[in-house]
Write a structure and sequence with these properties.
The protein is α+β, with helices and mostly antiparallel strands. Strands 11-10-9-7-14-15 form a 6-stranded antiparallel beta sheet, with helices on both faces. Helix 3 crosses helix 7 and helix 6 packs across helix 8. The longest helix is centred in the middle third of the chain and has 19 residues. It is globular. It starts with 5 loop residues before the first strand and ends with a strand.
């Protein structure tokens, strides 16, 4: 008797894809997720299937190493195709809207092409393909392919402020245009990206491949180049921060990803959220990638666990040492334990609110647990460098935060100076720091001693890049302040727009610093504040109800916030399920403080919760942004 002969297989793509939440990618091709049942029908040519007589053997692997048991979290970290990336500084945290677009046309094919372009696949295609079931392996491959330092990855990084042959990183509002440009160019790197762009594109790829992923921002992020868990910063006598010879820096903010996965290669308890950082900072096993590093291992100081845990630990928990450079000599000002790693942020689940996840990475600043973990990590790294066992050195004395000795919220000297100087300094803004307006602020000085204090305070202001790199100072002042016992005084300062506008970086960051000393005494106190200049947001109005396959009008209102005309104005608008591609409208010249309204027409093609993202760029600014959430109904 002849065996069964398969004539046709019905993959039931539509039925399966709807139940696997992949119908937005395709209903014509079967796309299923790990660990979930699916249905197919087999038709036989020569005879029907006879229960008990005929055998059909199916081979399937059902283990799901990235299973997340919360349905709301699965919706947020796998299915949601838009979100926010947090920027600014710890005192002014600003959500930047982003279109991840992982279900858009051809994105899945581009993500698979990305895997095939990796160095791993080029060297050994069979081995690479066999290992793709491991999220640890796959995430490292994707991480290396998002940047182009080792291969023809997706993005070129650029921190020079010279973007003439590409796109300023601040102008991007979504991943789809970047991935499609990379594919259309024959897989040539797209110009340009910085940390938030690398992280956003990686989020798109990982969610598209079914791995729960979120974008995380760390404010005051350490970049420790020599692995000693100390960031050294150097200042001159005016309080100006100097370029660091060691290249240690504190980034105003840094953005990476967390991916959810089991870690069977690590001891129990270290699965769950893992840090992956596609920004090319340091190499890992010879390639520019970072992670996956267990978030739990980072909090516990287990810096000897794979992968790249020491580097990630330093980004959130390094100490910061300030030095005064005078006459070629370096004088230690203070060591601060609280500067690095603040307000670690991600978008909340199924909400537009911000979720502070700092406690997932570190114990509270100033707590005994935080210091114990820090010194544990230091000793583990010393042991690794010496290739010897951990040494039972006595715990070094705890460096003290500059906030400890003074009143809450004040900057006070480190303990070796506090007994002598007993003065606290603090900067406070008088008005919101709006772009195009003068910056008004005050320096507050408090005498905590019972004696008269005569202070000389050197003040300065300079622009910064968001990676902490200082630019030339453009404002200086000197204040002489006499303080009676326990007296508080304020010194008013103003930096005119006409002065700072010529020196402002495209990151719109200004660092104001004050270096104070008492006459005839050697003790000094340093205080600084980073100001993020802000723009008025774009306003987006949806006119009428949004319904699938029904025309929809969208009004976009924006203005030139400056007291001078701006040229080369371009408005870009996008939104997955609402626009087939990014809309680009040439505006031209905008008069000073001129307000403009533009109406766009589109036809939504996907139902459900959607988001519109918009950006306005010009020759004077690059990233005035806005967004609007829209619910698109099914219609008839």
């Amino acid at each position: 008797m002849a065996g069964l002969e398969v004539a046709f297989i019905d993959l039931q793509s539509y039925w399966n894809n709807v139940r696997h939440h992949t119908q937005d990618i395709s209903v014509d091709h079967l796309i299923v997720r790990r660990g979930q049942a699916f249905k197919i029908t087999l038709y036989f040519r020569n005879q029907g299937f006879q229960q008990g007589l005929d055998d059909i053997i199916f081979v399937a692997e059902t283990e799901d190493a990235v299973y997340l048991d919360s349905e709301p979290q699965r919706q947020e970290y796998v299915v949601s195709d838009y979100g926010f990336i947090y920027q600014g500084n710890k005192s002014w945290i600003h959500p930047c809207p982003w279109n991840f677009g992982q279900f858009e046309e051809r994105i899945l094919d581009i993500c698979l092409e990305l895997l095939d372009k990796s160095l791993n696949f080029q060297v050994d295609p069979a081995m690479d393909t066999a290992l793709r079931g491991s999220p640890v392996y796959l995430s490292r491959v994707v991480c290396a392919m998002i940047n182009s330092n080792d291969d023809n990855g997706v993005l070129n990084g650029n921190w020079t402020e010279n973007y003439g042959d590409g796109v300023n990183p601040a102008e991007w509002t979504g991943s789809v245009a970047i991935l499609k440009q990379w594919h259309a160019s024959g897989c040539q790197p797209v110009r340009y990206g910085q940390c938030w762009v690398f992280a956003a594109v990686m989020c798109t790829v990982m969610r598209c491949l079914g791995i729960p992923t979120r974008v995380v921002t760390n404010f005051d992020s350490g970049h420790d180049t020599d692995g000693n868990l100390v960031i050294d910063e150097y200042y001159d006598s005016t309080g100006r921060i100097l370029e660091n010879k060691k290249k240690d820096t504190v980034w105003n903010f840094h953005v990476w990803n967390e991916c959810w996965m089991a870690r069977q290669d690590l001891p129990p308890g270290y699965g769950g959220w893992q840090v992956l950082d596609a920004t090319p900072q340091e190499t890992s096993n010879g390639l520019y990638c970072c992670g996956p590093a267990s978030v739990r291992a980072i909090k516990d100081g287990e810096v000897d666990l794979n992968y790249d845990t020491p580097f990630v630990f330093s980004m959130v928990n390094a100490d910061c040492m300030s030095w005064l450079v005078l006459g070629g000599k370096e004088e230690k000002l203070h060591q601060d334990t609280a500067t690095v790693g603040n307000s670690i942020s991600t978008k909340s689940v199924l909400s537009d609110e911000r979720d502070d996840i700092t406690e997932s990475y570190k114990y509270s600043e100033g707590s005994p647990q935080e210091r114990q973990v820090y010194f544990k990590a230091v000793e583990k790294l010393k042991a690794r460098r010496t290739q010897g066992p951990l040494q039972a050195n006595p715990q070094p004395p705890r460096p003290t935060s500059r906030f400890q000795d003074g009143p809450r919220g004040w900057d006070a000297p480190s303990p070796q100076h506090s007994g002598a100087l007993q003065v606290a300094l603090k900067f406070t803004l008088v008005d919101p720091p709006n772009m195009g307006q003068d910056i008004n602020f005050v320096l507050l000085a408090l005498n905590m001693s019972p004696q008269l204090k005569d202070l000389k305070v050197n003040l300065s202001a300079q622009s910064l890049l968001h990676d902490g790199s200082p630019l030339c100072p453009f404002w200086q002042d000197t204040a002489f302040i006499s303080l009676s016992p326990k007296e508080e005084k304020s010194y008013r300062c103003k930096i005119p727009y006409c002065q700072y506008s010529r020196y402002l970086s495209e990151d719109k960051l200004i660092r104001i610093s004050a270096l104070g000393e008492e006459k005839s005494r050697p003790e000094k106190i340093l205080v600084n504040k980073i100001i993020s200049l802000t723009y008025p947001a774009i306003i987006i109005n949806v006119q009428g109800a949004a319904v699938v396959r029904q025309p929809l009008s969208i009004q976009v209102i924006f203005s030139n916030p400056l007291l001078e005309p701006v040229e080369d104005c371009v408005l870009t608008v996008e939104g997955s399920g609402l626009f087939k591609k990014q809309q680009r409208i040439l505006i031209g010249v905008l008069k000073p403080q001129h307000r403009v309204s533009v109406t766009l027409k589109t036809v939504p093609f996907k139902s459900g919760q959607r988001q519109i993202q918009a950006n306005l760029s010009s020759n004077k600014f690059k990233d005035i942004k806005g967004y609007r959430n829209v619910y698109v109904g099914f219609g008839l």
